[in-house]
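User: My advisor, Dr. K., asked me to get a structural model of this assembly before our group meeting. I'm new to this, so sorry if the format is off. These are the inputs:
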Amino acid sequence: MNKLLSAAAVGAACLATPAFAQDWPSQTVTIIVPYAPGGIADIAARTVAEAMTQEWGQEVIVDNRTGGAGFIAATAVAQAEPDGHTLFVADMGVNVINPSLFDEVPYDPAADFIPITMISDTPLVLAAHSGTPFETVGDYFEAARAAPGELSFGSAGIGSLNHIVPEWISYEMDLEVVHIPYRGGAPAATAVASGEVEVGVLALSSVGPFVDSGDIRILGVAREERVESNPDVPTLIESGVPNVAAGQWAGLFAPTGTPEDVVGKIHTDVVAFLESDEAAETFGARGAIVSPMAQEDFAAMLDTLRGQFATIIDAAGITAE
Amino acid sequence: MGLIESLELGLVTALTLENLFYCFVGVSVGMIVGVLPGIGHLAAISLLMPLTFHVPATAALVMLAGIYYGAQYGGSIASILLNLPGTASSAVICLDGYPMAQKGRAGSALMITTIASFFGSCVAIIVLIFLAPPLARIAMNFQSADYFSMMVLGLVAAGSISQGKPAMGLASMLLGLIIGLVGIDVNSGAMRLTFGMPELMDGVSIIVIAMALFGVTEVIASVGNGFGAGGKSTTVTWGTLMPTRDEWRQTPWPLVRGAAVGTGVGLLPGTGGGSMASFMAYAVEKRASRRPETFGTGNVAGITAPESANNAAAQSAFIPTLTLGIPGDAIMALMLGALLIHGIAPGPRVVTESPDLFWGLVVSFLIGNLMLLILNIPLIQLWVRILQIPYRLLFPAIILLICVGVYSLERSVFDVLLVAGMSAVGFVLMRLGFEAAPLLLGFILGPMLEENLRRSLLLSRGDPMIFLERPVSATFLGLSVLMLAWVLWGVVRPQRPADETTTSKSMRESMK
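Assistant: The format is fine. Below is the predicted structure of the whole assembly, which you can bring to the meeting.
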């Protein structure tokens, strides 16, 4: 019994030992990703993991915990030992949309995760079928105003970013456009290309082949500034749509309680890598832009987005249940 | 891209060392599971699918497809030698193949079925090469309403030419449909049948279902058979492989008719691929024959036509799968699953956007069939010996592979438990007469049907005329009505009892 007790005491002491940046990482670091391999969040995590394995001299592995709109992965991270050995790569869905979309969410993104930095950003564009007469964002608004409820937009599913951003545009511009959900981003892009729906807010990387084949026309990009690869495409904001700027980004997070100096070290190292040419190239090839960010800026951006999205989701009556 | 360049691209892709290797592995595994009664190609494909996550999409599909058509070759071996169908589609081969073996013509029967398999496959591959690209081009303009109507035709076809009791087939399909509902509804975002478990929000994985119903359930059902399938040893000598001149003379027409029936059946979405084709080919052959009474006593045409047909169907089933993204049967549904896992959205764009995958796969079919031809004849002794592997070694290995495979999918213990639960339920259901194949088809087609129906109505703002206004949709709905009428006519019309009983009896046996 005494032995047991002392063993327990030693164990507790070990757990209680705070992790300091100088002896971190002392074991394998796991980055949990809420989506299946192949998506941009997964690629972001893998790229960072590979670079940090070399930087930290410890194995950094990616663990895809898919399912439940990210609930499973997010809960796992929220409950993980906050010692810097469990990290989280997550996106708008997990951090911004879920709390407004679902009645019950088993985690609180604002309270459970410390934002470290954004990793990459995939711009979203407002795109129209080439058979429509829309040449500019203005043409689309005019047509939508002239015939309320006649036009349709396709999305990757209820509550997806490409569902909420068009609703946001409609909210800002006071339009009535019908939402048609598809099972994922690729079928939604195909629907715009075949003309089944007139418009859609799609990832810039997914419309490329359709623009080349002449099936889709890009009207504007939902971003603060224009995209370097498509300098001719105006932003929605400069086309007269206030506020609408949101990309399909992937960001790095740690569970709340992770020692500040460890978070600081992770931030410094990851940002240093993201600023390299190698990182820019890797993400560029996927149609994404590397977006290292100061911790405070990332946190502030998340706060703003949560407020905006709560308003839009409520106004558009979007709900998953 | 012209046909020649396309085939060239396919050849270059298929002839890489990697793809050749996976093609060889696929057809060999296919042969083995085809030969062994009790382990179907569905089980083999679902088992091996997790292994393909880490190889390129083309190699993965080349291998999985190889298992499928490879099993069509192997299936007839057990049918002929033991009167036990190695796969459901070769059940009909028992009818004339086993009597031939009893007359000492086993060798020649094996030779003829191998040639028939090769011929049927080649015909269907040629049809695939010429038909798929234009079909994909047309399908580019298909919309939700068209897809909906095509799936209606698929379901009607599956229901009306179903094997066994139609009511049980329908019930099985409905059950699959209910399982398909689990998860977040695409159109409304509502949670259905998730019971508050986040693990169920994305629905039940097709691999979980396939592993449970085709893997574990089959193993449990075969456990009672004791040791290996080949209780007695059979030998086939080289000398008996050569068919007699009379047997040769009887082959050409059944070969052609079988290939035609098989290719046609495979093209229809929802008709269940190989097994339907082989039964239909057998029936056609019997009707065409001048001496129908010799069927069942070792008639060469009785093995040639069905064998040619089931291989043709196995290849032509890829046409709707690859060009439309609509699976013809459970296997094709798994192939679509493999595509999705590799991040390729099935549909008409696969042909134009991933030409190396599409044409590489098509050319690999030709190569795989050549491999099978070569594997089959000289190695016939080996395949016969595989029949003697004891089940007490084989089955635990399969169960272990299933557990590892399911866990590796999403590293979720929940999925493993789900397989265990579903296997238990599945076993009881199969004992009650439910069928696994229609269940899986309902699981896949049901949600697709619903999604497209509701999307079409959303797009038409609730006007059901959208299904009749679009010519493609209207045509498919018309065909569905015709097919239903044909089935009703079959029910009303006086039946020929003898004909019906032999076929349905053998069908029931094949389901065991």
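One thing worth pointing out at the meeting: Residues 227-232, 497-512 of chain B have pLDDT under 50 and may be disordered.

User: Perfect, thanks a lot.
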